[in-house]
Amino acid sequence: MSGYEDRDGKIWMDGKMVDWRDAQVHVLTHALHYASSVFEGERCYDGKVFLSRKHSERLLKSGEMMDMPIPYSVDEIEAAKRAVLDANGLTNAYVRVVAWRGAGEDMGVSAARNPVRMAVTAWEWGDYYGDAKMKGAKLDVAKWKRPSPETIPTAAKAAGLYMICTMSKHAAEAKGCSDALFMDYRGYVAEATGANVFFVKDGEVHTPLPDAILNGLTRQTVIGMLKERGITVHERHILPEELEGFEQCWLTGSAAEVTPVGQIGDWHFEVGALTREIAEAYEKLVRA
Question: How far is 60 from 43, CA to CA, in rounded Å?
Answer without folding.
Answer: 18
